[in-house]
Amino acid sequence: MAVDKKTFDFLIAGVPYKLRTSHDDATVQELVDFVNDKMNQALAVTKNGSYQNAAVLTALNLAEALIPLKRKAHRELEKVEEKILKLSVELENTKGVRSAGL
Predict the structure, then answer these.
(1) How many Cβ atoms are within 10 Å of 38's Cβ, its own excluded?
(2) pLDDT tier for residue 35 given thresholds of 50, 70 and 90
(3) What's the pLDDT at 1?
(4) CA proximity to 44, closest of 59, 55, 34, 54
(5) CB-count exposure of residue 9 (10 Å: 0-12, 13-18, 19+)
(6) pLDDT greater than 60 at residue 102
(7) Are 36 and 13 a contacting pair, CB within 8 Å?
(8) Beta-carbon neighbour count of residue 41 at 10 Å?
(9) Residues 6+ apart with CB under 8 A from 45
(10) Dist CA 49 CA 22 (whole Å)
């Protein structure tokens, strides 16, 4: 099944970019606004105003926010998998008791 993609033109820190994506307009705008805000914050604290330095700082700031979320999601997934395994074992034990006529 092919997904329709649109091309979006936008600015990050005043630099024009094009993005081809299947996301809707609102999602793309939210992404652009978020990255643009982070990039502008990084530019404000970058001593020489280098876009390259600001981009790396932005990437590190985003990674700093993402990594703990990924870890938390992984821990939550492990908890869910443990619960499913426990329930599966309990269900199998219940079937065994019923088939034994108890």
Answers:
(1) 20
(2) very high
(3) 63
(4) 54
(5) exposed
(6) no
(7) yes
(8) 14
(9) 57
(10) 33
Give the whole-angstrom CA distance, residue 27 versus residue 99.
53
Half-sphere exposure of 86 (CA within 13 A, CB side): 6
Q: pLDDT category, 85, cuts 50, 70, 90?
A: very high
Given a contact cutoff of 8 angstroms between Cβ atoms, the answer to whether 38 and 58 are in contact is: yes
60-92 b/e (C-beta count within 10 Å ≥ 16 → b): eeeeeeeeeeeeeeeeeeeeeeeeeeeeeeeee
User: How many residues are listed for the chain in this entry?
Assistant: 102
Extract the tokens encoding 2.
Answer: 């092919």
Residue-level pLDDT at 95: 80
